[in-house]
Amino acid sequence: MIRSGRTSGAWLRTRLARRWVSVTVEGDSMRPTFNPGDRVLARRVKTTPQAGDIVVVEAPVLLGNRSTWHLPPPGPGDLDRRWLIKRVAAVAGDLVPAAAAAGVLAAGEVVPPGSLLVVGDNPAHSHDSRHLGPIPVDRVIGRVVPSRRIRSDFS
């Protein structure tokens, strides 16, 4: 079957949007791995990420002093939501590592089912599970794929 250029282009963009998400890094939370302005590509996940994976997760909505989530979980068309890029520190059933422990969860507690803990590579500048608590797995958008990326500072 032959598709016209316009139709096949829209079809290809739709298929890519279902499988991939491109994110521009903002802030210093993932330095030195990523710098502000770096663009990364994440493959939408169908399985639970593992500890050490870098993931894109939906940022919660802050209501007063507590965080909550948009309803329903994000899908391929939800480009207006805010995203966080973080490293998975622990998954459901793991013990909370000291690096991910803070006011919400204590070191040695068990990560609840259906959740994971994420932290930034630059903890002094990262708003992550130490502040937000466990992240529901259905709020994970994708796993960042290793690639050569164009650095924002060309260094």
Describe the protein.
The protein is an alpha+beta fold and 155 residues long. It contains two helices and nine strands. It has helices spanning 5-19, 129-132; strands spanning 20-24, 39-44, 54-58, 61-63, 66-68, 83-91, 115-119, 135-136, 140-144. The strands form two sheets. The chain has a seven-stranded antiparallel β-sheet with strand order 1-2-9-3-6-7-8. Strands 4-5 form a two-stranded antiparallel ribbon. A hairpin with a 2-residue loop joins β4 and β5 (66-68). It is globular and about 50 Å long. It starts with a helix and ends in an 11-residue tail after the last strand. Mean pLDDT is 80; it is low at 1-5.
Name a few traits of the molecule.
155 residues, alpha+beta, 7-stranded antiparallel beta sheet, two-stranded antiparallel sheet, 9 strands, 12% helix, globular
Layout of secondary structure:
Blueprint: H1 5-19, E1 20-24, E2 39-44, E3 54-58, E4 61-63, E5 66-68, E6 83-91, E7 115-119, H2 129-132, E8 135-136, E9 140-144
Antiparallel strand pairs: 1-2, 2-9, 3-6, 3-9, 4-5, 6-7, 7-8
How do the SSEs run, as a string of H and E? HEEEEEEEHEE
- Total beta strand runs: 9
Gap between N and C termini:
46 Å
Question: What profile does the largest beta sheet have?
Answer: 7 strands, antiparallel
Instruction: Return the average pLDDT rounded to an integer.
Output: 80
Query: How many helical elements?
Result: 2
Label the structural class: alpha+beta
User: Strands of the biggest beta sheet: in what spatial order?
Assistant: 1-2-9-3-6-7-8
What helical percentage do the residues reach? 10-25%
Tell the overall outline: globular
Strand residues, percent: 25-35%
**What gyration radius follows from the Cα positions, in whole Å?**
17 Å
Poorly predicted regions:
1-5
